[in-house]
Amino acid sequence: MPAGLFTAHSKMSPYWWDHVPRPTLPAKPLPAKADVVVVGSGYTGLHAALQTARGGRHTIVLDAEAAGFGCSTRNGGQISTSIKPSFEDLARRHGAERAAAIIRDGQASLAWTGEFVRTERIACDFAVVGRFHAAHNPSQFEALASKIAHQPKGLEVEAHVVPRSEQRRELGTDAYHGGVVYARHASIDPARSHDGLLRLVAAAGADVQGHCPATGI
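Structure (tokenized):
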């Protein structure tokens, strides 16, 4: 990396890992076969393995690195109701009906995550705290405000616009040009969430193998 870009005290590992180090899983011989082989031990892979293992299928999870080494334990911990493409973009690709279904799926995912954390008793600091989307310039603020004012009918989410003059009550800074608060968005400790999920998968009987890349299918 370029010299001088980072301070002497910078670190390249996520702060989440300070209290949840990457797991050291026992090395085991690979089975000759399995009912289900999942490639990748992030959130998606472990949730898939949890379902198949609880359903009675012999399941093994492979990862080229330590379990959860990738984005599942490196993200910012935000959980939103949003799908990144807009309804208009999705409708052009898939039609209005399917676009609406995709948006609703995204909205339901936040509630589903909260319910999963509660029912499975995962200690990961999940909380619905709201989220501020900041605008970096006036035109971006207008775009954010317009998006909230013109939400597709039946797909509205709870949100309100915060002009720059009132921004300090949210952020304590004048660095941005206002923004939008999404009241139902939540936060989570990604590493603790992944660690809890990893424990559930092991308890369900699935075998997770770290440092074991899949080289072919």
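The two ends are 35 Å apart (CA to CA). Strands lie at 36-39, 59-62, 78-79, 127-128, 131-134, 159-162, 179-182, 186-187, 207-209.
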